[in-house]
Specification:
Blueprint lengths: L5 H51 L11 H11 L5 E6 L4 E4 L12 H6 L5 E6 L6 E11 L2 E11 L1 H51 L13 H51 L4 H32 L8 E4 H18 L3 E6 L6 E4 L1 H17 L6 E9 L2 E8 L6 H4 L19 H11 L3 E7 L3 E9 L3 H6 L1
Parallel strand pairs: 7-9
Antiparallel strand pairs: 1-2, 1-5, 3-4, 4-5, 6-8, 9-10, 10-12, 11-12
GO molecular function, one term: phosphorelay sensor kinase activity
EC number: 2.7.13.3
Catalytic activity: ATP + protein L-histidine = ADP + protein N-phospho-L-histidine
Length: about 475
């Protein structure tokens, strides 16, 4: 007995479908067999009865006598084996029969009325006197063009019905055997489906309890295989995500501790007194610098949180990308000078490049990209900011000649919390935030890199349409 569940449903559905199909087939088969037998008997008798009609059709022979000898001759000439032959008058009265039993009641079945209208009549029913199932076939006898008499053949259908009953029982037995085979087959099929489902369910239950080291084992086909692969991939991604978060917590703790240590140290030092104005100024500058660094870290995490919760609000206006890039260069100029990195703007356009967007957020994107380029570039290298238009797009490329990114890391570099170099500082959120900000502007951001050669970040933003340009 199959317990409640999908297995029982599979078996039940298979069984119902096969049972209904088999039932319809057997009904059609038995109906066809019955029709074949009944029609065979009727055709045999009807063909014989037609000879009577043809023999007496429009007969005008003077020697035909309507007496006992005449009817006896009909009985003897046109009789059939195992079939009663009756000669009736127009009113259904039996004039003569080859049966030892003769009813006094007139015949009133439908085959008589059909025969009197020049047709061969047929009737199937129970004989009133015996209760036996019979078939009667009637044909008219014409004398001088008039239907004066009717010959009526009556044959018992009990032997045929007995054969049909045996065939029905045999068909039912075959049906039962087929249903038993289908039941066994469907149970096997159900087990082949339910077993891997139970395995997947058991593994998922362990994952729900926090055990992400378990995996669905076994090679399953089709949708079950895809489900198992998806579950394993989910567990793998959760483990990877947890590791990234652990790394992020470790990294952000270090990032927060460093400026806090500097602020605390200089605060205590300045509080103790005894410093000249120049030293006090240096201490205050360090405190201000570290405070700005803390504010930047917090703002970066707040921005990421807003993006994740779809709470980032953009102030959309007409933005000149060239001005944004020039401001970006000015903001990072001092940092680039410390590593003797040359930053150059390559302008391939003849006019202003206007895009719809939030100027502050777009500046945040390019500041992050250029800052990363500076961070991972060697001394005495260069960074190019390339701007051009193509069709309906404004394209900005940040190209550096830095250390580059390996193919393995390039696939994950835009993931949240991911850092190629944990010693480089930061939260690992910069590129993830930049990617989402570009997408909020209906743009695209792609990265190409070669280890030891450099990295190119391609940002595509939709141009401001002509109507908005005119309005601006």
């Amino acid at each position: 007995m199959i317990s409640k569940g999908i297995g029982r449903q599979i078996v039940l559905h298979y069984f119902i479908v096969v049972f209904v199909t088999l039932l319809l087939v057997e009904i059609i088969f038995l109906f066809a067999i019955r029709t074949y037998y009944y029609d065979s008997i009727y055709n045999h008798i009807a063909n014989h009865a037609a000879l009577v009609t043809d023999n007496f059709q429009n007969s005008d022979k003077s020697e035909v006598q309507e007496d006992k000898a005449f009817f006896t001759n009909i009985i003897s000439v046109f009789s059939l084996a195992n079939t009663e032959l009756q000669v009736l008058d127009r009113h259904g009265n039996i004039i003569m029969t080859n049966s030892s039993f003769q009813s006094d009641r007139p015949v009133q079945t439908s085959d008589l009325s059909q025969a009197l209208t020049n047709n061969i009549g047929k009737w199937i029913g129970r004989e009133p006197d015996t209760g036996e199932m019979v078939m009667s076939v009637s044909s008219p006898i014409q004398l001088l063009g008039e239907n004066k008499y009717v010959i009526r053949y009556i044959t018992s259908m009990e032997p045929i019905n007995s054969k049909l009953l045996n065939i029905t029982l045999l068909a039912a037995l075959v049906g039962v055997v087929i249903l038993a085979v289908v039941l066994l087959f469907s149970m096997g099929l159900a087990n082949s489906i339910v077993k891997p489902i139970n395995n997947i369910r058991a593994v998922s239950a362990q994952m729900a309890r926090g055990r992400f080291d378990v995996r669905v084992k076994g090679e399953y086909k089709y949708e079950l295989g895809e489900l198992a692969s998806t579950l394993n991939y989910m567990a793998q991604e959760i483990v990877r995500g947890n590791q990234i978060k652990d790394d992020f917590i470790s990294s952000i703790s270090h990032e927060l501790r460093t400026p806090l240590t500097g602020i605390k140290g200089w605060s205590e030092t300045l509080t103790s007194g005894g410093f000249d104005p120049e030293e006090t100024k240096i201490g205050m500058q360090i405190i201000a610098k570290e405070t700005d660094r803390l504010i930047g870290l917090v703002e970066e995490m707040l921005d990421f949180s807003k993006l994740q919760q779809n709470e980032m609000k953009l102030v959309i206006a007409s933005v000149n990308l060239k001005e944004i890039l020039q401001e970006t260069m000015l903001n990072v100029w001092a940092k680039a000078e410390q590593k003797r990195i040359q930053i150059k703007l390559d302008d391939h356009t003849e006019s202003a490049v206007m895009v719809p967007g939030d100027g502050n957020r777009l500046k945040q994107v390019f500041l992050n990209l250029v800052d990363n380029a500076i961070k991972f570039s060697t001394e005495d290298s260069w960074i190019h900011l390339d701007i051009r238009t193509q069709d309906e797009w404004a394209i900005v490329e940040v190209i550096d000649s830095g250390i580059g990114i390996s193919e393995e890391h390039l696939r994950r570099v835009k993931d949240r919390f991911f850092q190629v170099n944990h010693q480089g500082g930061g939260t690992g959120l910069g590129l993830a935030i930049s990617q989402q900000l570009v997408e909020l502007h209906n743009g695209e951001m792609e990265m190409r890199s070669e280890l030891g050669v450099g990295t190119t970040v391609n940002v595509r933003l939709p141009l401001l349409d002509e109507l908005n340009k005119n309005d601006a």
